């Protein structure tokens, strides 16, 4: 029998920093009845603050440090599969994620209105600095499907905010994160419902939604 929405989608969060997005999702599970459970938080950086924060929330953690010439992705894939992962969320993850085993099962949040200010090397305050340097009058965040290129996957949703005169990089970063706090739980909820119930793949309104798919259980 196919699992329904009473069966939370098993989510893995990959992170490289403080883990604020993981904590945000964790809070949304209880606050907003988000239909997921976070079964693992993993990082390829040693001694990452975000893993300590996740552990304090009771989330199982794995540290899989990147080693030159090592097949990192095999170890990471194994950890995700061992946790029974159904959906991977890149929550501030700064490496290119190998998609071989996770097509249509991985999403990312980026702190700009893609396709602007995305791509390799565009993360964190670098993004906000580029927005300010370009003189943009608005910014925001984008949640998108992950493919084999940085920040190129089809968009699920975006949230916007004004760039106010005199804002500095840190002020803009704080303002954008306010939108991220709303955008990521909403996008994860949409994708979780799609995984359980099928229908068109979640996509930004007006964008192409390629095909339909029903995962059922894994």
Can you characterise this structure?
There is one protein chain. The chain is α/β, with parallel strands linked by helices and 218 residues long. The chain is 32% helix and 19% strand. The chain contains five helices and seven strands; from the N terminus they run βαβαβαββαββα. It has helices at 20-31, 49-56, 72-82, 125-133, 169-197, and strands at 9-14, 36-43, 61-63, 87-90, 106-110, 138-145, 155-162. Strands 3-2-1-4-5-6-7 form a seven-stranded mixed beta sheet, sandwiched between helices. α1 (20-31) packs across α5 and α4 packs across α5. The longest helix has 29 residues, at 169-197. It is globular and about 50 Å long.
Give descriptors for this structure.
globular; 32% helix; alpha/beta; 218 residues; 7 strands
- Unreliable parts: 206-218
In total, how many beta strands?
7
User: H/E element string?
Assistant: EHEHEHEEHEEH
What's the multimeric state?
A: single chain
Radius of gyration, Cα only, in angstroms?
Answer: 17 Å
Number of helical segments? 5
Task: Indicate the overall shape.
Answer: globular
Distance between the termini: 12 Å
Largest sheet: 7 strands, mixed
Spatial order of the strands forming the largest sheet: 3-2-1-4-5-6-7
Report the sheet-strand fraction: 15-25%
In round numbers, the mean pLDDT is 89
Q: What's the helical proportion of residues?
A: 25-40%
Helix/strand/pairing class, anyone?
alpha/beta
